[in-house]
Design brief:
Blueprint lengths: L1 H23 L6 H12 L6 E7 L5 E9 L9 H10 L4 E7 L9 H15 L4 E9 L2 E4 L7
Parallel strand pairs: 3-4
Antiparallel strand pairs: 1-2, 1-3, 4-5
Helix pairs in contact: 1-2, 3-4
Length: 149
Amino acid sequence: MLLDHRLAVARELLLRHLRARMCTGPLVESPRVMRDWLRLRLAGLEHEVFIVLFLDTRHRLIEAVEMFRGTLTQTSVYPREVVKGALARNAAAVAFAHNHPSGSAEPSHADEFLTQRLKTALALVDVQALDHLVVGADQVVSFAERGLI
C-alpha cells in the first residue's frame, strides 16, 4: 500500500513537471517532453481517452484537456466541441492525442478520418491542427511524422 501511494505521488509529480516544461516553449521544439507526458498520462488506461492540447500563436501550451472518454475500443469525438474549446481558449493551434488500450499505437482508418474531419472543422476558424498522437503501451505514433496531417 505504501509503495503504491509513493508511486502515485511520484507519477503525479513527474506529470506536473513535464506539463510545466510544455508551457515554457513551443511544443514542436520539445516533442520528447510532450511524448513523455502523453505516455505517462495515457499508457495503461483501460479505456480510450481523447486529449486536445490547445496552443498559442507560438505553439506554447495553453491547456491540455481530456475532452472525451470512451470504452475499451472507441471514443466518440465531436468536432463542434473541439472547435468550441479552441475558440474559448483563443488557441491558434492544437494537437490531438488518444490512447489505444490494446497496446498498439498503430493508427486506425477511423483515426485518420477523424483527424481530417477535425482539421477541416478547425481550419474554418483559422486554428491549425499540428499533430495527432496515438499512445499504445510504451509507443507513441505521430501523424505529422507519417505525413497523415
